[in-house]
């Protein structure tokens, strides 16, 4: 179901919770955090290609779901998404990828346009998710744990911690490894490096969302 991959991508985005003459991965991260806090789409676009990032994360998440499908099937017997086969996940996600990414872009559009939260999710699903994203963003803090920089590739390790609110406790504590690539002298967000470690955690959280919808 869309909720699984969607939840992974949305929850991954909580990690975004300067600037000298020479650019750096940490400056790029700070720009991303500022762009999301201020809902500045132009500034965000200077640091990440959303089309590419969403697509790359979607494909990587699908691979991780397939890899551990048997475990999810046993753990979540009431979820139809996990009651077929690994091949089903591969085919289903490939078939619905454009639809799912279109929804994600709708969420992004609603977020940056500051569309008010609807009374119910059904009234405006993309605006509802966008407002949930903002609530989660405000309920989390991200601290840089480590930065590894190569010539044109860097990885920032972030410890993400939720506050004492309901959503903050839902997030808990997670570690994200963000990969950045250098293009034309600027650092751009490329992908989530440790999605293999995060996927089981995020699937568990996605199941909580699914059960309560």
Care to describe what's here?
The protein is α+β, with helices and mostly antiparallel strands. 56% of the residues lie in helices and 18% in strands. It has nine helices and four strands. The chain has helices at 2-12, 25-38, 41-45, 50-67, 69-75, 86-112, 125-138, 166-171, 195-211; strands at 140-149, 153-162, 173-183, 186-192. Strands 1-2-3-4 form a four-stranded antiparallel sheet. Helix 1 packs across helix 4 and helix 6 (86-112) packs across helix 7 (125-138). The chain is globular, with a radius of gyration of 17 Å. It starts with a helix and ends with a helix.
Query: Total helix count?
Result: 9
Rg calc? 17 Å
Instruction: Detail the poorly predicted runs.
Output: none
Strand content: 15-25%
Globally, the shape reads globular
Sheet/helix structural class:
alpha+beta
| Helix and strand run | HHHHHHHEEHEEH
Q: Strand order, biggest sheet?
A: 1-2-3-4
Give a brief outline of the structure.
This protein has 213 residues and is an alpha+beta fold.
């Amino acid at each position: 179901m869309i909720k699984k991959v969607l939840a992974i991508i949305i929850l991954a985005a909580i990690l975004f919770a300067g600037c000298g003459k020479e650019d750096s991965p940490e400056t790029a991260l700070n720009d991303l955090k500022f762009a999301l806090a201020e809902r500045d789409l132009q500034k965000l676009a200077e640091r990440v290609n959303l089309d590419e990032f969403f697509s790359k994360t979607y494909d990587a998440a699908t691979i991780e779901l397939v890899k551990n499908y048997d475990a999810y099937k046993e753990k979540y017997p009431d979820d139809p998404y996990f009651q077929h086969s690994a091949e089903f996940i591969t085919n289903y996600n490939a078939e619905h990828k454009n639809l799912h990414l279109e929804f994600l872009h709708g969420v992004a559009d609603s977020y940056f346009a500051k569309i008010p939260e609807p009374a119910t999710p059904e009234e405006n699903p993309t605006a509802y998710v966008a407002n949930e994203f903002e609530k989660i963003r405000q309920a989390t803090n991200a601290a840089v744990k480590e930065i590894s920089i190569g010539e044109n590739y860097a990885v920032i390790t972030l410890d993400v911690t939720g506050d004492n609110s309901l959503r903050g406790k839902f997030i808990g504590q997670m570690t994200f490894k963000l990969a950045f690539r250098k293009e034309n002298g600027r650092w751009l967000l490329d992908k989530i490096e440790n999605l293999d470690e995060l996927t089981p955690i995020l699937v568990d959280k996605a199941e909580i969302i699914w059960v309560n919808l």
